[in-house]
Design a protein that fits this description.
Elements: H1 12-90, H2 96-118, H3 124-139, H4 147-184, H5 186-202, H6 205-233, H7 239-260, H8 274-277, H9 280-292, H10 298-304, H11 308-319, H12 325-342, H13 348-353, H14 355-372, H15 376-389, H16 394-420, H17 426-457, H18 469-478, H19 487-518, H20 521-553, H21 557-575, H22 584-605
Helix pairs in contact: 2-6, 2-7, 2-9, 4-6, 4-20, 5-6, 6-7, 6-19, 6-20, 7-16, 7-19, 10-11, 10-12, 14-19, 14-20, 14-21, 15-16, 16-19, 17-18, 17-19, 17-21, 19-20
């Protein structure tokens, strides 16, 4: 008997509820798992994307930097190649017309200036005695001749004429040209020489002063114009050496005047007036050479007058070749700049209005201030009296002055090599000069003080009985007197010679070239004129004040020049740009960069 037990099934509603609950539980668990995994995947993806983005950004930055560097390098290389090729086309050699033009300009201008700067030096004692007798004859025997004032005025009135000349230089050169102005300027020498002979014939010192004024006018034009003409006819690779020629001839003329002024030459009571007649020699030579063999400045012909054909002919003559395209292209670029900025002419007032020219003018005034406050004027004009006051005999003092003149010429000749040396720039030479002059002028003052103190105390004491170390040293040095002067006096000659060497390698060699480099063509005449005017004013103050300061504080006056050179050394290190072998546009960019750098530093400190 089979028993059948039926399977017990749940009710349909309850089965569905349980299954739904189970499905819901599974769905919730799955959803949570999926959410967690999704969040995890999203986090990993986001982090990975951030890493990838960072890496891509870094790569892009590196690529951009590399591209910019490559572009900069290629630009620099391109500019360098362009500049090198341009300079290769601008290089020149010494041709006969170029040499004749240099000689005509320098001999008739710079030599003339140097000659008249030194003409009163060695025969100074005779001239002072003649002036004293002339003064008493005119004003009465009881009148008092004040040597410090009248002789200083005679020596410095030349600078008053120079100041007037420089005030008119820009207008004169713009109208008559560089060559024409050099030629017409000789008329003032002729007038001055006539007055000089009248002074001797009529025994009237007033004529001598007036003649010095006319010579000053001639010298003022020559000083400002010679450097302009030389810089404008010189090839770019010879610009420094040719610029030095002006100073070579200036110091040669100075030495020539010292030699002919010696007592056994023309520097005696009967023949001293014949010294000044020698000025007719450079006048005749310059008029002949400039009139028949030398061209006008190409830059003046093209940039100022716009005469392309005349400028090209002048360049072809000066360079000795027909192909002067590169140099004409450069002149054309300068002419375009001049027309766009100043309509071919910029005066002094316009220079002050234009910021880029105003800073060049400041630099030019700084240069001439450095030169004139170095003590060059007293050393050049009063060196014989300085040596006499250092207890040298009159003849030894005159011979020492001539020896200094020889050192001057030899130093300036050696500087032609230094100026042309590829690794020696104008800035380095100038700063070396200021530092050297600072030290040497201080040593000049010290040795003259010792010489004077020693000569006074040597008569009343001995080194063993001296009460102070200074007295002992001074007395010991002074006790070694030999034929006309003490050891300290001869040491003063040595230190003046050292001063002359430093002066020559900087101030004497490159100042005029430096001035021409600082100004573009359209402002060069006005800029050089203003700078030379400032130079003459500074020189006038220094030259006129030296005898009075010497009387007031003695040889310590040289310490003031030393302090000025110390100041100029520091200032020059900050503001002076390098101009050697650079085109005018690049020089102006360098000046602007230094100006902005100095201005930004001053603003930051404020």
């Amino acid at each position: 008997m089979h028993c059948y037990i039926p399977f017990a099934r749940p009710k349909t509603g309850s089965m569905r509820t349980a299954r739904d609950e189970e499905d819901n539980t599974i769905s919730e668990a799955t959803a949570e798992t999926l959410t967690e995994k999704t969040a995890e995947l999203e986090g990993e993806t986001t982090a990975e994307l951030e890493r990838e983005n960072t890496a891509i950004s870094a790569v892009l930055r590196d690529d951009k930097t590399q591209i910019e560097k490559e572009n900069e390098d290629s630009t620099v290389v391109s500019d360098t190649h362009t500049e090198q090729s341009l300079r290769a086309g601008l290089k020149g050699v010494y041709t006969l017309p170029l040499v004749l033009s240099i000689f005509a300009c320098c001999f008739g201008s710079s030599f003339q200036v140097g000659f008249h700067l030194g003409a009163l030096n060695t025969p100074a004692k005779i001239l002072i005695e003649w002036q004293r007798s002339s003064y008493k004859r005119i004003h009465g025997p009881d009148s008092v001749y004040k040597e410090e004032i009248i002789w200083s005025l005679t020596a410095s009135i030349l600078l008053l004429g120079g100041i007037l000349a420089n005030a008119l230089l820009a207008s004169i050169t713009h109208r008559f040209g560089r060559k024409g102005t050099l030629m017409y300027n000789n008329a003032f020498v002729v007038i001055a020489m006539i007055l000089q002979q009248m002074a001797k014939s009529f025994d009237n010192y007033i004529y001598m002063m007036i003649s010095r004024f006319f010579i000053g006018f001639n010298s003022g034009v020559n000083m400002g114009l010679a450097s302009i003409y030389l810089s404008e006819i010189a090839p770019i690779n010879l610009r420094g050496a040719i610029g030095c020629m002006s100073n070579v001839f200036l110091y040669t003329g100075f030495l020539f005047a010292l030699v002919v002024g010696l007592p056994f030459m023309l520097g005696d009571e009967e023949n001293w007036h014949l010294i000044f007649l020698l000025s007719y020699i450079p006048v005749s030579v310059q008029l002949t050479l400039l009139g028949f063999f030398c061209p006008e400045s190409p830059k003046y012909s093209y940039i100022v007058h716009g005469n392309f054909m005349e400028a090209e002919r002048s360049l072809q003559l000066l360079r000795g070749r027909n192909d002067v395209k590169e140099e004409m292209d450069m002149l054309d670029k300068e002419a375009s700049t001049a027309r766009s900025t100043s309509h071919q002419k910029i005066g002094f007032c316009q220079m002050l209005e234009k910021k880029y020219l105003r800073w060049s003018l400041y630099l030019g005034i700084y240069l001439v201030f450095s030169v004139q406050t170095s003590g060059s004027a007293p050393v050049g004009v009063y060196s014989t009296k300085i040596f006499e006051e250092a207890k040298l005999s009159q003849l030894n003092a005159q011979l020492a002055t001539c020896g200094i003149g020889v050192v001057n010429v030899l130093s300036i000749l050696a500087c032609v090599y230094l100026v042309q040396h590829p690794s020696i720039g104008r800035r380095l030479l100038f700063l070396t000069c200021t530092a050297g002059c600072c030290i040497s002028t201080a040593l000049i003052g010290i040795t003259i003080i010792i010489a004077e103190k020693g000569n006074v105390e040597a008569n009343i004491t001995t080194p063993e009985t001296a009460t102070t170390l200074t007295s002992a040293i001074a007395t010991t040095i002074a006790s070694s007197n030999a034929s006309g002067g003490s050891l300290a006096a001869y040491l003063s000659i040595v230190f003046i010679a050292v001063y002359v060497v430093f002066f020559s390698i900087g101030f004497g060699a490159i100042t005029e070239t430096y001035l021409s480099d600082l100004f573009p063509s359209e402002a060069r005449a006005a800029g050089c004129s203003a700078s030379t005017l400032a130079s003459l004013l500074f020189r006038l103050v220094v030259l006129f004040s030296f005898p009075m300061l010497k009387k007031l504080i003695g040889p310590s006056v040289f310490f003031t020049y030393s302090a000025c050179q110390l100041f100029c050394s520091i200032l020059g290190f900050i503001i002076l740009p390098e101009t050697k072998n650079k085109e005018p546009e690049r020089i102006l960019r360098d000046i602007k960069r230094r100006r902005m750098s100095i201005t930004s530093r001053c603003c930051c400190k404020m």
